[in-house]
Amino acid sequence: MKSIVMTAKTVEEAVELGLRELGVDRKEAEIEIVSRGKPGIFGIGSEPVKIKVTKIDDPSEVVQVGSDVINTFIGLMDIDVITTMRHTDVDDNEGPYFNIEGEDSGLLIGRRGETLRALQLLVRTLVGRKLGNNVNFTVDVEGYDARRRESLANLANRVATRVIKTGRSIELEPMSPKERRIIHISLASQDGIHTESSGDGRDRRVVIQPS
In the chain, which stretches have pLDDT less than 70? Predict the structure, then answer.
């Protein structure tokens, strides 16, 4: 796959320059933000945005349809964001990773990620229907989902250590099914404890117990 590194004042401008240079559109390229640059003071010490654009020789249906659906949503919302895409191998567990970034990105995250979860559900449902089957891919906003995964895994390990030390069960806060799954998976191979879900509906949570 052919790659090119571009610099510009903004991410959007750098992306457009890279795509034009490679002669491709967004769903035919993997885009990685290398550096967001620095504004400097009165232009002194400023650094340009730097991105890497890689042409995908044969973009998968997931990449093409996913890009179309996400960008259609963004267009209808009329907000100042762009979509970058990485990890194009759909044979792994995660598949393509679409990350939405920009000044209005906070509007797509919402309180504790509620808006992002709704967006993920809508996009996955539409892509699944268009392709006729469930597919693996990730929709994120400003890396929020990735940071949340890491935070939950760290929380799980800290609480597991306390449970082993005290011999007492600990209930975590209510979480979504996806978040509870991250806790269960993070502790699946941990000796001395086991996990189970308790409660109903929005109050459902993970309980970490000594084994």
Answer: 1, 40, 42-43, 87-94
